[in-house]
Amino acid sequence: MIALLIAGALALAYTLLLTPLFIRGFRRLHWGQFIREDGPQSHHAKRGTPTMGGLIFISGAVLAYFAARLLTGTQPSASVMLAILMTVGLGAVGFIDDFLKTRKQQSLGLGGWAKIAGQVAVAVAFGLLAIQFANEHGLTPASTHISLFRDLSFDFLSLGAVLGVIAFLLWIIVIVTAASNSVNVTDGLDGLAAGASILVIGAYALISFWQFSQLCTRQLESGCYEVRDPLDMAVFAAALVGGLIGFLWWNTNPAHIYMGDTGSLGLGGAIAAFAILTQTELLLVLMGGLFVIESGSVIVQRAYFKVTKGKRIFRMSPIHHHFELKGWAETTVVVRFWIIAGLFVLAAIGALYAEWTLAL
């Protein structure tokens, strides 16, 4: 519990106090945001605002986690090392994309397939490593079962050793690419993705701590959880939440800095890692309901546009821009979308608790 508080506090102090220094440095490097010409006119004033802010809260969270472990004299766990691999790995993919955008001063950095290839590479590395490193109880960081509130009966390895591992990796790829791209799509208004991510990752901190208190290795009874390193996962989640809160101070409207793809892809990777390692993969659809709506609006818009040969459902996608073009103030859209994100998170936590009570 002490490590959790230390990690959150250190990450908060890091991003809250050091972000102005990063902003000055990014300005000197000319790492400014590019704004779409077809977007809302109010966004054109944001052109040139420093981007790649994901470097700040990702580095802050990682440093705070290791500092907390050092100060409490405990060793990092395999599960959190994998979560860091996912967060930093996808953050690196986003950084390359951001860097190319600032160099070219256009909205296209990495090509679509190049970005997907980077996400797949990180997901495959994560998936292969996540079914290694069994602890003394035989638990690996990830399970080869599909999970909702805990593992369901279907095991990918029931398909055979080789085919099962391939199917498992494809499942991991789907989760990782869906989560990271959905957070990336949501990051279109000042503070929107950061605030929503605080709620979702904060929920995973709570879930991980709850799983720790109900571990089967501590109390073997119905309703207990067979997961690895849940308390350490809560520590890393707290570090991310602390880092994001400090960053949001500077990212809220009018934003002094944006997280860029560096931050949004890194956050999506972290959220995917938490879902996989806490064995709540399918619950992520409800937990990240706002992200699902945002990415779903893009898919629906594009599909409808092609089918109807030029007609649109929304004035602009993702859907947060639709409400802007309807006349809502940017801060109004952001706060209302935070409320929606919070309601989805509460529903997911409530569903998980209800399942636990029924399992008793």
Question: In brief, what are we looking at here?
Answer:
By secondary structure, this protein is mainly alpha-helical. The protein is built from twelve helices and two strands.
Please describe what this structure looks like.
The chain has 360 residues and is mainly alpha-helical. It has one domain. Helix content is 67%, strand content 2%. It has helices at residues 2-28, 54-72, 78-104, 112-130, 161-186, 192-213, 230-251, 260-277, 284-287, 289-307, 319-325, 330-359, and strands at 145-147, 151-155. A two-stranded antiparallel ribbon has the order 1-2. α2 (54-72) crosses α8 (260-277), α4 crosses α5 (161-186) and α5 (161-186) packs across α8.
How far do the termini sit from each other? Answer: 26 Å
Total number of strands: 2
Radius of gyration: 20 Å
Strand content: under 5%
Number of domains: 1
Q: Mind summarizing the main beta sheet?
A: 2 strands, antiparallel
Low-confidence stretches: none
* Total number of helices: 12
The mean pLDDT is: 93
Order of helices and strands: HHHHEEHHHHHHHH
Strand order of the largest sheet: 1-2
Shape: globular
Structural class: mainly alpha
The share of residues in helices is 55-70%
